[in-house]
Amino acid sequence: MTKPVLANGFDVRSLQPILHDPDFCLETTCELFFKSKIGDSTTVGVTALNGERYVIKRYNSKGVLHDVLSQFRMSRAKRNWLFSLELQRIGVPVVPPVALLEKRIGPIKTRAYFISRYMPGVEAAQYFSDDNPAQEHWSAVLKKIASISQQLKKAKIKHRDFQPGNVLIMNHEPFLLDFDYLFKINRSDAAFEKIHQRQIKCFLRNLSHSPTAKAMFAAELQALGDNV
């Protein structure tokens, strides 16, 4: 097993029960978000340690061919880790990263884990539902999400899954999560604009369950100069 990489403010000793055997935590002490079964690409659970709660995300095998190909590219756990740090650096609010752990047998990568803080919020898809009594906050929250989309555009970061399910709302503040499918794109501003437009239209499509929220988000995007 490789030495874990930790975010500032954390040390191996305080996280030892998780880092020593994250599988044991997932199997015995975690409240699972996604239970592991054949075909699942990840297993995600919440565990408590020293009065704090952490999310453990394990990246499971997708089969022999995937395992072979994964030896020659960055793991999804590492991508999640690196982009969480990069987004923090440029001021995008994210669920705080805690640690990256990659298991190896010699040079061969086996399993990888991304550990983050647990934040007791709700996904934006649930937050922007017509039965939410906090609709007076929607406009301000959607304005912040629109601003996040502009930050991604400025940094030329492509988010292949920019949708409400990957935005956590806590205390009426949005936080991005799940960076498995983020990519840094080195293209011209004009070329990246097409990518940006696809991203915001994806988010809009996934707000179709709430016409009010969808219209609000479109208005916020237009106020920032987007053509929607």
The total tally of domains equals: 2
Strand content: 25-35%
Distance between the termini: 48 Å
Identify the strand order in the major beta sheet.
1-5-6-4-3-2
- Topology order in helix (H) and strand (E) letters: EHHEEEHHEEEHHEEEEHH
Within the CATH hierarchy, at the fold level, what is the topology of the largest domain?
Answer: Phosphorylase Kinase, domain 1
Main pleated sheet: 6 strands, antiparallel
Mean pLDDT: 88
Overall geometry: globular
Structural class determined from secondary elements? alpha+beta
Low-confidence stretches: 34-39
How many β-strand stretches? 11
Classified by CATH, the class of the largest domain is Alpha Beta
How much helix is in the residues?
25-40%
Tell me the quaternary state.
single chain
Q: Nearest-angstrom radius of gyration?
A: 19 Å
Count of DSSP-assigned helices? 8
Task: Record keyword descriptors for this entry.
three-stranded antiparallel beta sheet; alpha+beta; six-stranded antiparallel beta sheet; globular; Phosphorylase Kinase, domain 1; 2 domains; 228 residues; 8 helices; Transferase(Phosphotransferase), domain 1
